[in-house]
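Dear all,

This email documents one entry for the complex benchmark we are building for the journal club exercise. For each entry we list the sequence lines for every component of the assembly. Then comes the predicted three-dimensional structure of the complex as a token string, followed by one or two observations. Please use this as the template for your own entries, and keep the labels exactly as they appear.
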Amino acid sequence: MKKQVLLVTAHPEPTSLTRRLVELSAKTLEQQGYEVLQSDLYGMHWKAVFDERDFPYRADPERLSFVTESGHSYSTGTQPDDIASEQQKLLAADAVIFQFPLWWFGMPAILKGWVDRVFAYGLAYGFKGAGNRYRYGDGGFKGKRALLSVTVGGPAEDYSTRGINGPLEQLLFPITHGTLFFTGMNVLPTYAVYGTGSLTAEGVAAAEAAWRSRLERLFEDTPIPFRSQSSGDYPDRHVLGGHVAIGQSGLTAHVADTPDGYSTAVSGETVMMGS
Amino acid sequence: MKKQVLLVTAHPEPTSLTRRLVELSAKTLEQQGYEVLQSDLYGMHWKAVFDERDFPYRADPERLSFVTESGHSYSTGTQPDDIASEQQKLLAADAVIFQFPLWWFGMPAILKGWVDRVFAYGLAYGFKGAGNRYRYGDGGFKGKRALLSVTVGGPAEDYSTRGINGPLEQLLFPITHGTLFFTGMNVLPTYAVYGTGSLTAEGVAAAEAAWRSRLERLFEDTPIPFRSQSSGDYPDRHVLGGHVAIGQSGLTAHVADTPDGYSTAVSGETVMMGS
């Protein structure tokens, strides 16, 4: 059976760089023999706001708890069709690629709302109703690959190791680690194009060539070596053991086997286009 | 004239801890003699998705560039009323408090969409049309205070210095530094209540008491000492100078005058309630 790749994308302008790269994804992946699934969030008029309308059959009609109602609607099969449909695509996919412009150092609201609504209790967190037993390397999306492809207005140097914005991979940690690896996915180093406001035709061509080569290695590239909860690195499942990442703290301590943590783990792989 | 404080809040359930803390904010701030402005995003049915409907009079009807159209609609006064109204509240406010549940280590989509739509080019970025000249300590919201108040389902230890999620203040860096300090605001250490799924009545009372005391010190507490772009710490406006934060890299390097950076800068101030 063909491997399936889901593209979750968030830009409404057909001629934008983001959308050009999405088209390239579909074409390249199909040429490689994969089946491509698409979630074009703007095109679908995706409902971004997670609210009471997402729970037509409430566990508690009096008081809205998102965790309770998310778990109840997921386990009873009473979720809205748009949510259930995205979950089915996710479960079918061998890899998920997110393509979006970086807005205020994160996802556009329409994409954040896709995560908020689709990543249900019992599936993406609280897997099997077992609290935090399955997370960070294990869970409902275990073994799938994930990859972020971001278009960035500012220059690459602003996102470098000592750049004024902070390193891109650290800014994206809540997504790569806290959202995707949390559910069990193997997350690849981020692909980024910088300076999108002033890209020349040559710059676009170079970005496309670099993206094509990332796509061709989608199932070969080495994921970011985030530490899994069950690895023994977190003996109590909450805090790094004293024998691990000695002398380290913060986000970078959660990446294994690199001399100085997260930045190094990914800096060699992050493609920096633009200026 | 009375000082004004804007509350931007994102929870639809009136009995939720988030909303209880919002009520406490309004009451406490009014008792102190401040004028309270509110943006209850769920109550307002805030439009979360930034799209072409936000630009009824386009600079370029053919191709949608968000930066171009944001700047054009802001400078020509053709923004939708809901966006202009929020900008007026922000400009009137001496302090802005964001109160929200932490969803996937970030803002709920409705709040991210408030930032995406309200933080216009020419005001929040590209201030005075001068590119990146005014940012990180200078800009359209210079001198206002900002404070995040977050309710967190998980236990505090998961967000500790070596906790499995990463330290809360580092996870929130794209908001505190990249969004609020970027526009010139002085950002206070985050207030957080943890373990909200299992809080006892005593826990709620303790959280409220701690929040009340933070509110009472809103204009006295020391902001996070983020390095400003114009301080000389970034001689080329992009990368830390070699004389600054020697041997440091990553997010923590952008906090001044603390022995080991960002975690230490805020760990003493972040209120950790719950378990």
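Observations: Chain B has eight helices and seven strands. The mean pLDDT of chain B is 94.
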